[in-house]
Amino acid sequence: MMQKVFTLIGAILLTMGVNAQATLKVEPFKIGIGEQKTITLDMDNSGLTDAAAFCCDIYLPEGVEIETDSEGNYNFSISTKDGRSTSPESLIIASAIQSDEAVRVVCFPTDANAFAGVSGAILNISLVASKDLSKGTEEVTIANQEITNTTGLSTVNPDASISDLIAFIRSDANSDGDINITDVAYVLDDINGASTEGFDEDAADANRDGEINITDVSLILDIINSEN
How many Cα neighbours within 13 Å face the side chain of 52? Predict the structure, then answer.
Protein backbone atom coordinates (compact mmCIF):
# COMPACT_ATOMS: atom_id res chain seq x y z
CA MET A 1 0.00 0.00 0.00
CA MET A 2 2.71 2.49 1.01
CA GLN A 3 4.68 1.65 -2.11
CA LYS A 4 1.65 2.62 -4.18
CA VAL A 5 1.34 5.93 -2.33
CA PHE A 6 5.04 6.72 -2.85
CA THR A 7 4.68 5.88 -6.53
CA LEU A 8 1.77 8.31 -6.75
CA ILE A 9 3.67 11.12 -5.01
CA GLY A 10 6.67 10.52 -7.23
CA ALA A 11 4.47 10.76 -10.28
CA ILE A 12 3.39 14.22 -9.16
CA LEU A 13 6.93 15.42 -8.70
CA LEU A 14 8.21 13.92 -11.93
CA THR A 15 6.76 14.60 -15.36
CA MET A 16 5.29 11.47 -16.93
CA GLY A 17 3.14 12.87 -19.70
CA VAL A 18 0.44 10.72 -21.31
CA ASN A 19 -1.79 11.56 -24.23
CA ALA A 20 -5.02 12.20 -22.35
CA GLN A 21 -7.17 15.24 -21.78
CA ALA A 22 -7.43 16.59 -18.24
CA THR A 23 -8.05 20.14 -17.10
CA LEU A 24 -8.08 22.16 -13.88
CA LYS A 25 -10.04 25.42 -13.91
CA VAL A 26 -12.18 27.84 -11.93
CA GLU A 27 -15.48 29.16 -13.20
CA PRO A 28 -15.86 32.94 -13.78
CA PHE A 29 -16.97 34.65 -10.56
CA LYS A 30 -17.69 37.99 -8.89
CA ILE A 31 -16.21 39.25 -5.65
CA GLY A 32 -17.02 42.34 -3.62
CA ILE A 33 -14.14 44.73 -3.05
CA GLY A 34 -12.84 44.29 0.51
CA GLU A 35 -14.68 40.99 0.89
CA GLN A 36 -13.95 37.27 1.20
CA LYS A 37 -15.29 34.65 -1.22
CA THR A 38 -14.79 30.90 -1.51
CA ILE A 39 -14.54 29.49 -5.02
CA THR A 40 -13.82 25.97 -6.23
CA LEU A 41 -11.07 24.47 -8.34
CA ASP A 42 -12.77 22.12 -10.79
CA MET A 43 -11.23 19.11 -12.51
CA ASP A 44 -12.31 17.54 -15.81
CA ASN A 45 -10.42 14.27 -16.12
CA SER A 46 -12.67 12.53 -18.64
CA GLY A 47 -9.55 11.60 -20.61
CA LEU A 48 -7.65 10.21 -17.61
CA THR A 49 -9.65 7.76 -15.53
CA ASP A 50 -9.11 7.24 -11.80
CA ALA A 51 -7.56 10.68 -11.23
CA ALA A 52 -6.20 10.70 -7.68
CA ALA A 53 -3.74 13.60 -7.36
CA PHE A 54 -2.93 16.92 -8.96
CA CYS A 55 -0.71 19.97 -8.84
CA CYS A 56 -0.99 23.41 -10.42
CA ASP A 57 0.01 27.06 -10.08
CA ILE A 58 -2.65 29.68 -9.30
CA TYR A 59 -2.11 33.23 -10.54
CA LEU A 60 -4.33 35.92 -9.05
CA PRO A 61 -4.61 39.61 -9.99
CA GLU A 62 -2.98 42.21 -7.77
CA GLY A 63 -5.27 43.00 -4.86
CA VAL A 64 -6.69 39.47 -4.56
CA GLU A 65 -5.04 36.89 -2.32
CA ILE A 66 -5.68 33.40 -1.02
CA GLU A 67 -6.72 33.64 2.62
CA THR A 68 -4.22 32.38 5.20
CA ASP A 69 -4.71 31.02 8.70
CA SER A 70 -3.09 32.28 11.91
CA GLU A 71 0.09 30.39 11.06
CA GLY A 72 0.33 31.82 7.55
CA ASN A 73 -0.83 28.66 5.76
CA TYR A 74 -2.98 29.07 2.67
CA ASN A 75 -6.66 28.35 3.22
CA PHE A 76 -7.38 25.41 0.91
CA SER A 77 -9.83 22.64 1.77
CA ILE A 78 -11.21 19.59 0.01
CA SER A 79 -14.52 20.28 -1.70
CA THR A 80 -17.43 17.88 -1.33
CA LYS A 81 -19.68 20.07 -3.53
CA ASP A 82 -19.99 17.59 -6.42
CA GLY A 83 -19.38 14.42 -4.42
CA ARG A 84 -15.94 13.91 -5.94
CA SER A 85 -14.14 13.57 -2.62
CA THR A 86 -15.57 10.48 -0.95
CA SER A 87 -12.92 10.48 1.80
CA PRO A 88 -11.62 14.06 2.15
CA GLU A 89 -9.83 13.19 5.38
CA SER A 90 -7.42 11.01 3.40
CA LEU A 91 -6.30 13.83 1.09
CA ILE A 92 -3.22 15.91 1.84
CA ILE A 93 -2.85 19.48 0.54
CA ALA A 94 0.50 21.24 0.33
CA SER A 95 1.03 24.76 -1.00
CA ALA A 96 3.74 27.40 -1.32
CA ILE A 97 4.37 30.76 -2.97
CA GLN A 98 6.58 30.65 -6.08
CA SER A 99 9.19 33.15 -7.27
CA ASP A 100 6.74 34.56 -9.83
CA GLU A 101 4.08 35.13 -7.12
CA ALA A 102 1.99 32.12 -8.17
CA VAL A 103 0.68 29.83 -5.43
CA ARG A 104 1.50 26.21 -6.17
CA VAL A 105 -0.85 23.65 -4.70
CA VAL A 106 -0.32 19.88 -4.59
CA CYS A 107 -2.98 17.42 -3.47
CA PHE A 108 -2.60 13.65 -3.10
CA PRO A 109 -4.32 10.84 -1.15
CA THR A 110 -2.77 8.79 1.61
CA ASP A 111 -4.86 5.77 0.64
CA ALA A 112 -4.25 5.98 -3.17
CA ASN A 113 -7.99 6.14 -3.84
CA ALA A 114 -9.27 8.08 -6.85
CA PHE A 115 -11.68 11.01 -7.00
CA ALA A 116 -15.25 9.98 -7.75
CA GLY A 117 -16.55 10.74 -11.23
CA VAL A 118 -14.71 12.62 -13.97
CA SER A 119 -15.74 16.27 -13.52
CA GLY A 120 -16.61 18.78 -10.84
CA ALA A 121 -15.21 20.61 -7.82
CA ILE A 122 -12.28 19.11 -5.94
CA LEU A 123 -10.82 22.00 -3.94
CA ASN A 124 -12.18 25.03 -2.07
CA ILE A 125 -10.13 28.22 -2.39
CA SER A 126 -10.84 31.05 0.05
CA LEU A 127 -10.06 34.44 -1.53
CA VAL A 128 -9.79 37.91 -0.04
CA ALA A 129 -10.17 41.04 -2.17
CA SER A 130 -8.31 44.10 -0.91
CA LYS A 131 -10.21 47.34 -0.31
CA ASP A 132 -7.73 48.87 -2.77
CA LEU A 133 -8.83 46.53 -5.57
CA SER A 134 -10.25 48.42 -8.53
CA LYS A 135 -13.74 47.74 -9.84
CA GLY A 136 -13.71 45.78 -13.09
CA THR A 137 -12.69 42.51 -14.72
CA GLU A 138 -9.41 40.72 -14.00
CA GLU A 139 -8.11 37.24 -14.78
CA VAL A 140 -7.41 34.15 -12.71
CA THR A 141 -5.01 31.70 -14.33
CA ILE A 142 -4.47 28.02 -13.49
CA ALA A 143 -1.16 26.98 -15.06
CA ASN A 144 1.44 24.19 -14.94
CA GLN A 145 -1.30 21.63 -14.46
CA GLU A 146 -0.55 17.98 -13.82
CA ILE A 147 -3.05 15.28 -12.92
CA THR A 148 -2.00 11.78 -11.85
CA ASN A 149 -4.10 8.63 -11.65
CA THR A 150 -3.90 5.66 -9.30
CA THR A 151 -1.52 3.74 -11.58
CA GLY A 152 1.04 6.57 -11.55
CA LEU A 153 0.33 7.84 -15.07
CA SER A 154 0.23 11.62 -15.43
CA THR A 155 -1.19 14.07 -17.91
CA VAL A 156 0.46 17.47 -18.22
CA ASN A 157 -1.75 20.24 -19.60
CA PRO A 158 0.42 22.70 -21.57
CA ASP A 159 -2.45 25.21 -21.81
CA ALA A 160 -3.35 27.42 -18.87
CA SER A 161 -7.01 27.83 -17.90
CA ILE A 162 -8.03 31.49 -17.69
CA SER A 163 -11.28 32.77 -16.19
CA ASP A 164 -12.73 36.17 -15.37
CA LEU A 165 -12.85 37.68 -11.90
CA ILE A 166 -15.28 40.59 -11.71
CA ALA A 167 -14.71 42.96 -8.79
CA PHE A 168 -17.71 45.03 -7.74
CA ILE A 169 -18.57 47.57 -5.05
CA ARG A 170 -21.09 46.30 -2.53
CA SER A 171 -24.28 48.48 -2.51
CA ASP A 172 -23.37 50.14 -5.85
CA ALA A 173 -26.55 48.82 -7.44
CA ASN A 174 -26.20 50.75 -10.71
CA SER A 175 -22.47 50.00 -11.15
CA ASP A 176 -21.41 53.63 -11.60
CA GLY A 177 -18.68 53.49 -8.95
CA ASP A 178 -20.55 55.56 -6.36
CA ILE A 179 -23.05 54.73 -3.64
CA ASN A 180 -25.86 57.29 -3.64
CA ILE A 181 -29.61 57.74 -3.80
CA THR A 182 -29.68 56.40 -7.36
CA ASP A 183 -28.66 53.00 -5.99
CA VAL A 184 -31.66 53.13 -3.64
CA ALA A 185 -33.92 53.80 -6.62
CA TYR A 186 -32.47 50.85 -8.52
CA VAL A 187 -33.03 48.50 -5.60
CA LEU A 188 -36.58 49.71 -5.12
CA ASP A 189 -37.27 49.18 -8.83
CA ASP A 190 -36.04 45.59 -8.52
CA ILE A 191 -38.16 44.96 -5.42
CA ASN A 192 -41.20 46.27 -7.32
CA GLY A 193 -40.48 44.00 -10.28
CA ALA A 194 -39.12 46.62 -12.65
CA SER A 195 -36.15 45.88 -14.91
CA THR A 196 -33.54 48.63 -14.92
CA GLU A 197 -30.58 48.67 -17.30
CA GLY A 198 -27.25 48.48 -15.50
CA PHE A 199 -28.69 46.91 -12.35
CA ASP A 200 -26.13 44.74 -10.51
CA GLU A 201 -27.95 42.14 -8.46
CA ASP A 202 -24.83 41.08 -6.52
CA ALA A 203 -23.95 44.63 -5.55
CA ALA A 204 -27.55 45.43 -4.62
CA ASP A 205 -27.53 42.63 -2.02
CA ALA A 206 -26.09 44.97 0.61
CA ASN A 207 -26.32 42.52 3.53
CA ARG A 208 -25.10 39.50 1.50
CA ASP A 209 -28.04 37.28 2.45
CA GLY A 210 -28.85 36.22 -1.11
CA GLU A 211 -32.03 38.29 -1.28
CA ILE A 212 -32.83 41.83 -2.37
CA ASN A 213 -35.39 43.50 -0.14
CA ILE A 214 -36.10 46.56 1.99
CA THR A 215 -33.27 45.64 4.37
CA ASP A 216 -30.80 46.30 1.56
CA VAL A 217 -32.41 49.69 0.98
CA SER A 218 -31.93 50.54 4.66
CA LEU A 219 -28.29 49.52 4.61
CA ILE A 220 -27.55 51.55 1.49
CA LEU A 221 -29.23 54.58 3.06
CA ASP A 222 -27.07 54.09 6.15
CA ILE A 223 -23.94 54.17 3.96
CA ILE A 224 -25.11 57.34 2.21
CA ASN A 225 -25.91 59.05 5.52
CA SER A 226 -22.58 58.04 7.05
CA GLU A 227 -20.70 59.68 4.18
CA ASN A 228 -22.59 62.98 4.44
Answer: 23
From residue 183, give the alpha-carbon distance in Å to each of 20, 69, 131, 186, 223: 50, 36, 20, 5, 11
List pLDDT tens digits, range 170-222. Answer: 999 999 999 999 999 999 999 999 988 899 999 999 999 999 999 999 999 99
Q: How far is CA 90 from the centre of its chain?
A: 22
Answer yes or no: are the C-beta atoms of 161 and 41 closer than 8 Å.
Answer: no
* Whole-angstrom distance, CA of residue 130 vs CA of residue 133: 5
Q: How far is CA 90 from each of CA 2, 13, 77, 107, 192, rounded to the nearest angstrom?
A: 13, 19, 12, 10, 50
pTM for the whole thing?
0.86
